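in:
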């Protein structure tokens, strides 16, 4: 036995049938829509299922103001204004005793103002304005089947303060949308199943202001959208529990470490961005300055003394790590350090501290 039920309730609903085929002399169609909903709108459905062999399908939709228009090979211009001041609520509940069938599908949607415009082989121009006052828009869904089973289950809960959808097929559009929401928008869904041999999917989506544009088969569009959400709360929640389920989504893996010992770090010229040199890293020794030679800094790099320093250190000149980690000897260099013997360096240091030349003394006398 199949259990299928769906409730669609809208405070103010306007539907424009598709326009017929057009010729070159057909003038563009004009659509004017104005909707104001001051009262509350609610949709509620409860399904009590003992056992079915095929499927179970249920849904509840509630909209304060709803507008739908379609153009079929005839250009059109639309002007739409939608306003909702009352509460909007949609509720779907499913109670299962034994089995709800091979598939179980539940859809629950609540919208303060909803608009849909579609063009097939036509050019669409329009201005769409939607406003939801300081009220509440709520979508709720729940499945209670702790001792029951189903082949696969999919539940979708969606709530929006203002929603506008534009669809194009072989067409083009130039539209402007303006949305304002001051309502609390919440969606709450979930369920409990004893056994699900297939997949189980539960989703909840909430939006204060939502605009969707889709096009196919060479369609083109230009849109300007203004959105303002001042509602005190926009929230989506979901809770599920299963005794046994075949397919479940695993948790995301932990993030990878920021660096490894083989990573090479680049230096920064900003002193504030330079990290502190590790205490175990070898320091460069300043050599005595020879007479007649400018001071030079050794260009060779020091080997790392621990894995913590194998990424290099930052300074004005990059210090690159070498592959040998067990030796502390300095690499060979072609500078003054490798060609000048140690006694010569001592002589040059002594000579630099000598007394002035005799010519300087003669000048003083």
């Amino acid at each position: 036995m199949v259990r299928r039920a769906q409730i669609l309730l809208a405070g103010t609903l306007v539907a424009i049938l598709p326009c017929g085929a057009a010729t070159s002399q057909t003038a563009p169609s004009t659509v004017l829509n104005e909707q104001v909903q001051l009262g509350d709108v609610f949709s509620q459905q409860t399904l009590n299922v003992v056992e079915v062999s095929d499927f179970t399908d249920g849904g509840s939709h509630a909209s304060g103001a709803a507008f739908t228009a379609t153009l079929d090979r005839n250009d059109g211009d639309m002007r739409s204004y939608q306003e909702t001041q009352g509460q909007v609520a949609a509720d779907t509940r499913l109670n299962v005793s034994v089995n709800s069938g091979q598939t179980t599908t539940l859809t629950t949607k609540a919208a303060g103002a909803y608009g849909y415009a579609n063009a097939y082989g036509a050019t669409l121009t329009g201005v769409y304005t939607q406003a939801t006052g300081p009220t509440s828009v709520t979508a709720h869904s729940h499945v209670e089947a702790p001792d029951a089973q189903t082949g696969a289950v999919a539940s979708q809960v969606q709530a929006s303060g203002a929603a506008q959808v534009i669809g194009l097929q072989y067409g083009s559009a130039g539209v402007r949308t303006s949305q304002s929401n001051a309502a609390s928008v919440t969606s709450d869904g979930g369920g409990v199943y004893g056994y699900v041999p297939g997949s189980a999917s539960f989703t909840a989506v909430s939006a204060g202001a939502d605009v969707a544009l889709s096009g196919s088969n060479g369609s083109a569009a230009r849109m300007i959208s203004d959105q303002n959400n001042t509602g005190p709360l926009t929230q989506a929640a979901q809770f599920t529990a299963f005794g046994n389920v075949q397919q479940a989504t695993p948790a995301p893996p932990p993030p990878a470490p920021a660096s490894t010992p083989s990573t090479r770090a680049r230096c920064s010229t900003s002193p504030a961005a330079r990290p502190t040199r590790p205490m175990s890293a070898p320091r460069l020794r300043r050599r005595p300055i020879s007479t007649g030679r400018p001071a030079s800094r050794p260009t060779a790099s020091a080997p790392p003394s621990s894995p913590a320093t194998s990424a290099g250190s930052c300074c004005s000149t990059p210090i690159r790590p070498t592959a040998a980690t067990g030796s502390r000897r300095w690499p060979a260099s072609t500078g003054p350090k490798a060609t000048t013997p140690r006694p010569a360096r001592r002589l040059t240091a002594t000579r630099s501290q000598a007394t002035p030349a005799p010519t300087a003394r003669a000048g003083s006398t």
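note: Residues 270 and 357 are 45 Å apart (CA to CA).
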